[in-house]
Amino acid sequence: MPKFSDGVLRFQRDVFPMKKALFEALSLGQTPEALFVTCSDSRIETGMLTQCDPGDLFVCRNAGNIVPPYTGHTGGVTASVEFAAAVLEVPHIVVCGHTGCGAMAAALDESSVENLPHVREWLQFTRLAVANVKSRSEGKSPAELQEMLTDENVILQLEHLKTHPAVAERLARGEMRLHGWVYHIKTGGVRVYDEIRRQFIPVADYY
Ligand SMILES: [Zn+2]
């Protein structure tokens, strides 16, 4: 049996009974505290990282934790953002990038996605962040550039979020807060973007 289906059996046997009351309550509906936008990367485990229970986070994942700017075109991210903001009325949106992100590496080296037209087009939503990083690239190693882009991309996607009408409306009413995070896979560290100081600082210092 594949590892993941075997896991379902263990979940049903060992985990579900311990949280039975929670799942019963959740069967009636959800009131998540945040929309959590992160990368599809298999190394990110949102529930484990935030120690949240099912029902706490409304999660939207894609390559590069990207939120396309609002255009009126329908897409999966746009629909999830609209639903989370307008219907679920989440008080927080987190955009969480991560170290070693393949999408960020590809955005810096477009030739690597030459034969992946959809990935290439998707990464156009990081273009301004890439330009920003390339303008400061002198003397930097590829690893440093990727780290810089990971940060800049989170900041850019936060700006894109603000263009979505349902988000803009709730921000204007003071009913929502945006958070930019970068998760460090090797250390478990999380840095948070401080909009006032315009830099990322450790999660423990930010909140
Ligand atoms: Zn990634």
What does this protein look like?
With 207 residues, this protein is of the alpha/beta class. It has a 6-stranded mixed beta sheet. The protein is globular and about 55 Å long. The mean pLDDT is 97. The site of zinc ion has 7 residues, from helix 5.
SSE blueprint and pairings:
Elements: H1 3-15, H2 20-26, E1 34-39, H3 46-50, E2 57-62, H4 76-87, E3 92-98, H5 102-108, H6 117-122, H7 127-134, H8 142-162, H9 165-172, E4 177-183, E5 190-194, E6 199-202, H10 203-206
Parallel strand pairs: 1-2, 1-3, 3-4
Antiparallel strand pairs: 4-5, 5-6
The structure holds zinc ion (ZN).
Structure in a nutshell:
This protein has 207 residues and is of the alpha/beta class.
List keywords for this structure.
single chain; 207 residues; alpha/beta; Beta-carbonic Anhydrase, Chain A; six-stranded mixed β-sheet; 10 helices; 6 strands; binds zinc ion
Q: Which bin fits the share of residues in helices?
A: 40-55%
Q: How would you name the oligomeric state of the polypeptide chains in this document? A: single chain
The ligands found in this model are: zinc ion
Low-confidence segments: none
How many structural units, i.e. domains? Answer: 2
From N to C, what is the helix and strand string? HHEHEHEHHHHHEEEH
State the major sheet.
6 strands, mixed
Task: Give the terminus-to-terminus CA distance.
Answer: 43 Å
CATH architecture type of the largest domain? 3-Layer(aba) Sandwich
- What fold name stands as the CATH topology of the largest domain? Beta-carbonic Anhydrase, Chain A
**Treating each run of at least 4 consecutive H or I residues as one helix, how many helices?**
10
- The count of DSSP E runs of length 2 or more, i.e. the number of strands, is 6
What fraction strand? 15-25%
